[in-house]
Design a protein that fits this description.
The complex is a heterodimer of chains A (576) and B (160). Chain A has 576 residues and is an alpha/beta fold. The longest helix of chain A is centred in the middle third of the chain and has 13 residues. The radius of gyration of chain A is 25 Å and the shape is globular. Chain A starts with 5 loop residues before the first helix and ends with a strand. The chains are: A alpha/beta (576), B alpha/beta (160). At the A-B interface, loops of A face helix 2 and helix 3 of B.
């Protein structure tokens, strides 16, 4: 390859798009490192505190797309206090100062501000795509800046963000001459929507492929929107009130029939029980269905809909579908690859909506299944062993038994053997979440068999430090380990400090690690940021010279970094 | 740390980090396979089960809406009598108010159960609210009580 001019090598590199592969390429030789540097288009940073924007720009001066992730995963479940960090402002400012031609920004679990969005909208002439997932800190004013200033915007995708809705006119801020919209997702906005502005925007967007509405968009508006955009591929329905007048329903049905390109359906945020039947005509083409917010729709209506969806590849649903409903899925959706079943009853009310039977049925009926997230009240080892035998192709397997420490409900044994069977059979398993009554034994299995495992979530499991040690020693590809309410302590934490250099991060909350242990770790590994988070404390721990033997109260979050201690930590975060 | 060879029926993990419930931990440990104080913390807390805030809010408002419309959404809570390790489960949505609740409990536990201030003679009913605090039953309106109650405990006469 050394005999080819750089441009040729660069052209070859253009075909290599995965981050891992490009990272590997850059390690081959100095020449390749240089060529790869200047030609990298998409940069992915899994932890915004692992590197600084300045160093990023020094290494990759020409990128067009940046993906940044901030808070750790458990922030999704209220375990990270407000104000912890993940601020995107310094990144936007640094990028704006440089001459990078940013076209796409994808943020996950970060704090974004209206000022930041305004700066973003003014700094990059060719900015095309903004994707914000589980972010917070901004309002519809920020969206108004994006709409007003980004002449070439294609995608505005807001997924599950906390947005302060000022009920302003952000939708009418898109200029009348603006026609390049491809993706518009504002399902997470809580306030009123300017329906007239929305309809006009959709009507002048011939390239619109994905439209996800919020709950303020009623049925008749939906019908008009769909009539304007029959080319739509991905639709998120907003509000769907009880039996509207028959004329609205007819109009909607007529509009739906024309949407022959529709492949993905979601939303139904306030959905009346009988509304799904209008969508039956398009079901045979659907590949993705997300009904996880349609809490009021009865299982029987869900089943009637799914019976028509023979091509479904992805299904997100509530457990109100029941085991019987999952059996229908298993016999109908032979192309199913990903299934998520969310709980409707959070307090263990006693109604067993889905059980191990539903999971077994799916595993038996859907040969292409590779990703599952399953919430249930009960499980057995026998069922898990059967699932493992039926489906050795799992890449992601997440099982959440709602009651912590719950054993196999038939044998009263721990679920070690069941999960053991899963990791042994599924040689490509990259992500695993375990639950129920579990001893150190399950971690022995995980360490032994889960050779490709990159992310592991543990809650209320294990007996001793040995459990955590099995995982740290065995899973060579581990990147993210998150543990809560499990009896792992200093011995496990400190056994192999260098392991953390190969991982993105470790989270341990309500475990047995002590302050002294964490301090020792921080001393041994200066390239780690070791954070103690306690929202009730505000650094009193530090002032009072807490005893080293004191248990960490109550969260430990550590991650590798090349830029040392972060300067934006709030008082309740103590970085050792 | 509990025994390390065979599995311990109760992980000792969360003992220190949960608010200790004085009578609970000593009474229920022997037979229960879960750690009552832990699981109740989880039941009341905002961080378990691991679902995103949006879904959590959706489910909460759903229950409220259904109840407002008169649908019978079951509300099973655990009921323990102090001194008795094995509890019962009760569907609070079947009662019209405190009076019928007390009548039913008195019948279930074969003793006189009352609300209100301490009494040397009677068993007093207490409840754990969604913040994890133990409170006297009867102070707040019944509907509000249904929203916040997580479990019930019938105390021994002298304790309160």
């Amino acid at each position: 390859m050394n005999y080819f001019p750089d441009e040729v090598i660069e052209h070859v590199f253009d075909f290599v798009t995965s981050h891992k592969d490009r990272n590997s390429i850059s390690l081959v030789c100095k020449s390749w490192f240089k060529i790869e540097r200047y030609s990298r288009q998409n940069v992915f940073i899994g932890n915004c505190y692992s590197i600084s924007p300045e160093r990023l720009l020094r290494r990759f001066p020409c990128f067009k797309s940046l993906t940044l992730k901030g808070k750790p995963h458990f922030a999704d479940f209220n375990l990270v206090p407000h104000g912890w960090g993940g601020f995107v402002q310094p990144w936007i400012e640094a990028l704006a100062r440089s001459r990078v031609g940013l076209e796409e920004l994808r943020l996950k679990r970060m704090v974004v501000t209206d000022e930041g969005l305004e700066l973003l909208s003014r700094s990059f002439v060719n900015f095309k795509s903004l994707v914000l997932v589980s972010c917070e800190g901004f309002s519809t004013d920020g969206l108004a800046s994006i709409a007003s200033n980004c002449r070439h915007l294609r995608d505005l995708d807001l997924q599950e963000n906390e947005i302060d809705d000022h009920r302003g006119q952000w939708l009418s801020c898109f200029p009348e001459t603006y026609t390049s919209l491809v993706t518009l997702n504002f399902a997470c906005l809580e306030g009123e929507t300017n329906l007239v502005a929305l309809e006009r925007l959709v009507a002048r967007s011939p390239n619109l492929r994905s439209l996800k509405l919020n709950r303020a968009v009623p049925l008749d508006a939906l019908a008009r929107l769909m009539a304007c955009a029959p080319q739509i591929v991905d639709l998120g329905v907003g509000s769907y009130e009880d039996e509207q007048d028959s004329e609205s329903c007819l109009k909607l049905q007529a509009a739906i029939r024309k949407c022959t390109s529709l492949r993905s359906l979601s939303g139904f945020l306030e959905a009346a029980p009988h509304c799904l039947s209008a969508f039956h005509p398009v079901c045979h083409n659907l590949t993705s269905l997300n009904l996880s917010y349609a809490a009021e729709i009865h299982g029987s209506h869900l089943i009637k809909l799914i019976e028509h969806c023979k091509k479904l590849q992805r299904l997100w649903i509530l457990d109100s579908i029941g085991d019987k409903g999952l059996e229908v899925v298993a016999s109908t959706c032979k192309e199913l690859q990903e299934l998520r079943v969310f709980p409707t009853d959070l307090h263990g009310g006693g109604n067993t909506a889905v059980t191990e039977d539903g999971l077994v049925a799916i595993s038996a009926g859907c040969p292409k299944l590779h990703s599952i997230l399953y919430f249930c009240q009960q499980m057995t080892n026998a069922a898990l062993i059967t699932v493992a035998r039926n489906c050795p192709n799992f890449i992601r397997f997440r099982l959440c038994i709602l009651e912590p420490h719950k054993p196999d409900h038939v044998t009263s044994q721990p679920l070690d053997e069941g999960f053991g069977a899963i990791v042994q059979a599924c040689k490509n398993l990259k992500r695993l979440s375990v639950s129920g009554l579990l001893t150190d034994q399950v971690f022995l299995y995980i360490g032994m068999f889960a050779t490709q495992l990159e992310m592991l979530s543990i809650a209320f499991a294990g007996d001793t430090d040995k459990g955590m040690l099995y995982v740290l020693n065995g899973c060579k590809k581990m990147r993210k380990l998150e543990i809560r309410d499990s009896p792992f302590g200093d011995a496990a934490l400190l056994a192999d400090v260098n392991k953390y250099e190969t991982m993105r991060s470790l989270w341990m909350s309500s475990c047995e690690v002590t302050l002294g242990g964490c301090k020792r770790l921080a001393r041994k590994a200066p390239w780690l940021n070791v954070e103690i988070i306690n929202e009730n404390d505000n650094n009193r721990m530090e002032e009072n010279g807490y005893e080293g033997r004191q248990k960490v109260d109550n969260k430990l979050y550590l991650y590798r970094t090349v830029v040392g201690t972060r300067v934006d930590a709030p008082p309740f975060v103590w970085i050792l | 740390m509990e025994n390390s060879n065979s599995y311990s029926p109760y992980s000792s993990s969360s003992v220190d980090s949960t608010k200790p419930s004085p009578s609970e931990s000593s009474v229920n440990l022997s037979l229960s396979l879960t750690f009552p104080s832990t699981s109740s913390q989880r039941e009341t807390s905002q961080d378990w089960p691991p679902i995103k805030p949006r879904l959590r809010d959706t489910l909460k408002s759903l229950r409220l809406r259904l109840r407002q419309r008169g649908y019978n959404t079951a509300l099973f809570v655990k009921v323990y009598m102090e001194g008795v390790p094995i509890g019962r489960k009760l569907d609070l949505s079947t009662f019209s108010g405190y009076k019928s609740l007390l009548e039913n409990l008195s019948h279930m536990f074969d003793t006189s159960v009352i609300c209100g201030t301490r009494d040397r003679k009677h068993h007093v009913l207490t409840y754990q609210d969604k913040d994890g605090d133990w409170m006297m039953v009867g102070d707040i309106p019944w509907d509000m009580f249904l929203e916040t109650v997580r479990r019930l405990k019938i105390t021994r006469p002298e304790r309160c």
